């Protein structure tokens, strides 16, 4: 009689590993703007491995074109950019909570403590608080760009 447990074990070993694709929300001002190169690398790596990246900004819809150009200039890719409706009557933390819930995001990276606390307290997502990054001196920037 064949050993069913062994068959089951072998079947599982041959199955592709199921990996949940994650959905990340990333703020722009004070977050991507503080470290565009780091975010470009991070986002590329996340998307290359099948995760989803949403730009979640308190900037309103009237700034869409300008903001898309800025992100393109930084080489930042994303699945979708969510911008606050021009007539949004509630707070920005309320807006971000709504987006995180609607898109069932796993994590929101944001520099604003009020946004992070709102996400932490009102959603299932994890808030990653972006700390301010000190400006690099020009010569360091040039080194990083390989211009020296
Ligand atoms: Mg911000």
Describe this protein's structure.
There is one protein chain. The longest helix is centred in the N-terminal third of the chain and has 13 residues. Strands 3-2-1-4-5 form a five-stranded parallel β-sheet. By secondary structure, the chain is of the alpha/beta class. It is globular. The structure holds magnesium ion. The site of magnesium ion has 7 residues, from loops.
What are the salient characteristics of this protein?
Rossmann fold; 18% strand; 148 residues; five-stranded parallel β-sheet; binds magnesium ion; 42% helix; alpha/beta; single chain
**Can you list the strand order of the major beta sheet?**
3-2-1-4-5
**Into which percentage range does the β-strand content fall?**
15-25%
CATH structural fold name = Rossmann fold
Shape descriptor: globular
The CATH superfamily appears as HAD superfamily/HAD-like
| Low-confidence region ranges | none
Q: Which ligands appear in the coordinates?
A: magnesium ion
């Amino acid at each position: 009689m064949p050993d069913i447990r062994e068959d089951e074990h072998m079947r599982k070993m041959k199955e592709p590993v199921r990996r949940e694709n994650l959905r990340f929300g990333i703020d722009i001002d004070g977050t991507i703007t503080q470290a565009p190169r780091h975010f470009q690398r991070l986002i590329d790596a996340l998307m290359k491995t099948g995760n989803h990246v949403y730009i979640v900004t308190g900037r309103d819809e009237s700034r869409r074109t300008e903001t898309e150009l800025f992100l393109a200039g930084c080489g930042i890719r994303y699945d979708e950019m969510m911008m606050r409706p021009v007539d949004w009557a509630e707070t920005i933390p309320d807006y971000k909570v709504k987006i995180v819930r609607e898109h069932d995001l796993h994590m929101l990276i944001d520099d604003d403590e009020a946004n992070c606390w709102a996400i932490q307290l009102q959603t299932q997502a994890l808030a990653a608080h972006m700390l301010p990054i000190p400006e690099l001196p020009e010569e360091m920037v040039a080194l990083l760009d390989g211009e020296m």
